[in-house]
């Protein structure tokens, strides 16, 4: 399972509303470099057949089965630091 903090839920909800479409957000991992991984985040407009879906209030999180093996237990937060 993947969880979102209240700050993350609020931010994702706002981004989906300002985008004007979308049913949630996707978190995933892909291979990078020599045996490493990088995180992938993207908006979801349509659920894919094998997606795992986690509901947090009115925000849906989509994760493909392979990524779920690496992301299970993750908590996502939203933090603003510096100029970012």
Topology:
Layout (H helix, E strand, L loop, with lengths): L2 E2 L1 H14 L4 E9 L3 E9 L7 E5 L2 E5 L1 H7 L3 E2 L8
Parallel strand pairs: 1-6, 2-5
Antiparallel strand pairs: 2-3, 4-5
What does this protein structure show overall?
With 84 residues, the protein is α/β, with parallel strands linked by helices. It has two helices and six strands. It has helices at 6-19, 65-71; strands at 3-4, 24-32, 36-44, 52-56, 59-63, 75-76. The strands form two sheets. The chain has a four-stranded mixed sheet with strand order 3-2-5-4. The chain has a two-stranded parallel ribbon with strand order 1-6. A hairpin with a 3-residue loop joins strand 2 and strand 3.
What's the short version?
The chain is an alpha/beta fold.
Intertermini distance: 28 Å
Major sheet: size, sense and barrel closure?
Answer: 4 strands, mixed
Quickly count the helices: 2
Secondary-structure element order, as H and E?
A: EHEEEEHE
What global shape is seen? globular
**Structure class:** alpha/beta
Radius of gyration, taken over Cα atoms and rounded to an integer in Å: 13 Å
Strand content: 35-45%
Query: Strand sequence of the main sheet, in spatial order?
Result: 3-2-5-4
Which spans have pLDDT < 50 for at least 5 consecutive residues?
Answer: none
How many beta-strand segments?
6
Report the helical percentage.
25-40%
Average pLDDT score: 92
Q: What labels describe this entry?
A:
single chain, 84 residues, alpha/beta, four-stranded mixed sheet, two-stranded parallel sheet, 2 helices, 6 strands, 25% helix, globular
